[in-house]
């Protein structure tokens, strides 16, 4: 029997039958359904990093406003569009089910061959401790990319042997898709490519992969170009490596943890190894079967040997990199993290264990096939098949039925809907407190990413402080620094509404959870009125005219907006951190920190035409405050912006009407065009080459090699 990675060739006759395909689909669907079944009901799914709500806005990164960060933008945009079409509550569980289902099918497609091999590979790839952690943490985009990784590897292996430029560029499409879901996969695929070169060193392979990498970079221009020369919205450094470090008690336990596909930096529920009696024995059995598959596949030779070499090598490299800065290659990992552009996305090194999970699955499938095929009696083959299908399930059985009932859909309290009804829709914003990026609510029953941006129709300003050991916040937002300074001075304030008015804040919402009582000083503000007070939530409405953009009379220095000028401790927000210096009350500090006297009424200056364009109407000369976080790319005609205290963008303008535009939007648009054009070109070239190849095979008199089994 000749083994081949060509899908037109099979290892068993029944692989061409409809029932074999149905069996593979049925097993993958059953695994996905067994995990997600309790979630298929009315309600909202709240996970650590995956929340939905009734009012999901388009992704703000679409415009390149947030430091040019467009990572995972295609996924965010597709999720928003699909949610608008089928309902955002359905989108809570659907990507998880799709990821599990896709993982089962794509891993089976990578190994090809007999049904037993495919089903066993797909089942272990979809159900294992690594997937357990990612699903529970709500890393939905990463899970979807993980589910497609085997197809990218298959495309690389096929392109390695293909002829013609178009055929050898096909992996660009898969790699671009993976990066569109989670940019971490650029480095995971790079590791696979490194193994391909190491296991079959040749100038041809190296030149092909170098060219492939260049085209991938161009295809991901939307990810690269908007960020060039732009200050990133978050600061990533050595503290992140410590905060997201792979877990393990000591060097030996650390390696064992990763080898067992554990080691995720955060643990909230019992892990499979802690919850399943005899788990090490089950995993040892998986390793033994995988070892059998490696030996059998290597002896088979041909494409199967190549698959074994790439899978095993990638798994070994994934294990090494998953240890991060703690393992034998710790110094190299730290150097890459500090010096290689883009490598900072791997601040959580355990994600490299995805390669190890794929290696286990591939080798396990080959081993399962060898054990079943080596049994002569039908009853014995049936017994082996059943045992080998149960074994993957035994490695993470607590995933099933909503993680044993630990994950359920929830509902927002009625008071949240009442608050949304009171606040209504409009351009003015909501400031949501308590100021935490992650917090728990009675209706979520666990710590989750703040769901407020999805609960209300208005734009929400919420906490961006990650609050991990060693990292209070990674945000570089001047607005956030300004707001945190105001919270620290809350008990001495009486006009909080004026102080947040430059940011377009009309409503302040306080959810009664976590440390919400620290914000009771809001009741003492003379320019805030409480319009709702329920057991779960309170809503304050500012009585200060909030207009964006706003004109301020000529001769008045803008931006501290009221009594902020009289505080005895004044925040110097000229840098990324809040630095407090003492000054006499009421003193004007410098032109870089202008002030607006209390009682000054700003006048409407125009309207917001889009997130990247304002139209200013005619009016008195003076200052215009946009209400946008400061960005040097804003332009009012030919005038450059000024960063006003509080982190808002302002201009000193004349009386004539004019447009204010976000100049960097042109670069962002161009990057989208480059990416779309590159992907379209590669796709069309591949289709043309495939059509030409098919026509050549079917032409009269053409050579047609018979299929072999």
What gap, in angstroms, lies between the N and C termini? 5 Å
What amount of the residues lies in strands? Answer: 5-15%
Fraction in helix: 40-55%
* Adjacency order of strands in the biggest sheet: 6-3-7-9-8
The value of Rg in angstroms is 29 Å
User: Given the C-alpha coordinates, what overall shape results?
Assistant: globular
Instruction: Report the mean per-residue pLDDT as an integer.
Output: 86
- What is the total domain count? 3
Oligomer class: single chain
Largest sheet report: 5 strands, mixed
What is the number of E strands?
Answer: 20
- Number of helical runs? 24
User: What structural category do the secondary elements indicate?
Assistant: alpha+beta
**Regions with pLDDT < 50 over 5+ consecutive residues?**
1-16, 554-600, 701-709
Search tags:
globular; disordered C terminus; alpha+beta; 3 domains; 12% strand; 709 residues; 24 helices; 20 strands; 5-stranded mixed sheet; single chain; 5-stranded antiparallel sheet; disordered N terminus; 46% helix
